[in-house]
Amino acid sequence: GDIYYADTKNASPEFKPFAATLMLAGKIIDAKTKKALQAKIVVKDAKSGQVLVEGVSNSATGEYTLIIPTENPNFVQEVSKVEYENFSKPFNTQIKTGLNKVDSNVELAKPEPIIATKPPEIKKEVLDAAADYGIEKSPLRR
After folding, report:
1. Concatenated DSSP letters of 19-55
2. pLDDT tens digits, residue range 1-59?
3. What is the phi/psi pair of residue 13, to 5°?
4. What is the model's pTM?
5. Between β-strands 63-68 and 20-30, what pairing exists: parallel, antiparallel or unpaired?
6. Is the pLDDT of residue 64 over 80?
7. Which pairing describes strands 51-56 and 40-45: parallel, antiparallel, or unpaired?
8. If you placed Cys at 26, which of 3, 80, 97, 105 could pair as Cys (CB 3.0 to 4.6 Å)?
């Protein structure tokens, strides 16, 4: 394809591209197995909460790269995946002319299962009341 060049040295500021680029990149993995995960990444403005950019990590490598269209260095990264706990991290970066790369590797964890250790006790009065109503073979009786 063709390559074009535009001299913007004397152009109006509204036609000049911002001289700095903010890039967020990293890898998303399972906290326990360390295997790569495909997950949704959302970058929001830290003050307004407005979504600046969204993306998805590579399913094979877990890697992602997002260009954040903002001059504001304060943003929040949110990462989510079904069956995993959500991840959120605020950033306050220093933006300089040129490429401003922010690395953010994320480990997502699965929530701990809730396991009942002992079934709840059923009071004798409740069982006797059930018997008074003819419920002798109640699943509540042990």
Report:
1. SEEEEEEEEEEETTT--B---EEEEEETTT--EEEEE
2. 566 666 666 665 555 555 788 899 999 999 999 999 999 999 999 999 999 999 999 99
3. -55, -30
4. 0.67
5. antiparallel
6. yes
7. antiparallel
8. 105
Amino acid at 93: T
Residue 79 has pLDDT above 90, yes or no: yes
From CA 128, how far away is CA 141, in angstroms rounded? Answer: 10
Phi, psi values for residue 106, rounded to 5°: -125, 135
86 closest CA partner among 102, 106, 68, 67: 106
* Neighbouring residues of 8: CB distance < 8 A, sequence distance ≥ 6: 15, 16, 17
C-alpha of 123 from chain center: 45
Contact status, residue 61 vs residue 10, Cβ threshold 8 Å: no
In angstroms, the CA 110 to CA 83 distance is 6
Residue 77 parent element (H or E) = strand 74-80
Sign of CA dihedral 60, 62, 63, 69: positive
What local confidence, expressed as pLDDT, does residue 128 receive?
74
What CA–CA distance (Å, rounded) separates 76 from 121?
47
